[in-house]
Amino acid sequence: MKNECSIVGDLLALWMDGLVSEDTAAFVEEHLARCAACRARLEQLRAPAAPPETVQEERAFYAFAARWKKKRRRVLAAFVALSLAAAMLAACLFSLLTFGTANFASAAWGLAQVTFLEEPWAEVSAAPKVVLAAPETDITNYMAGRGFAENEQERMSALRVFEKDGVQEHVLCGVNRSFARWVWQ
Ligand SMILES: [Zn+2]
Description:
Bound molecules: zinc ion
Number of helices: 6
């Protein structure tokens, strides 16, 4: 019987394609009728071949690429948003440390005014009040324009005190090469 199975095995593909004689066909069919093992073998031959692994990998890759294409725009948008947020945060921090206000745009505009437009000073923040001025500018001129006079006796180095009708304002004054910074306390 084993020997017969081996012969039928050799003939199965030819028999499926109708390439055997009537006698051989009858022999194969008669054997298949009583041999489960050869019927199973026949089922295997009839089943569509599984795609080779490389094809499967290729399909998986294209499926992934398609999904990625859809996601890419969202990922890119999120990346841009995060980068902008990080840049704005950095700008705010820099602005706070350098100019005394977290509003970088306002600080930059104030600096441009006193540097390039040669304004004597520019208010860059209202609360707390922060004023940028050209480095050589004397704050007493600015305060005099608002009707305030300095109380020299209360001055503590960089912290200066100005008075008008019994109202005091305390201003922390700093200066570097590019600008003077007055921060109201
Ligand atoms: Zn058999």
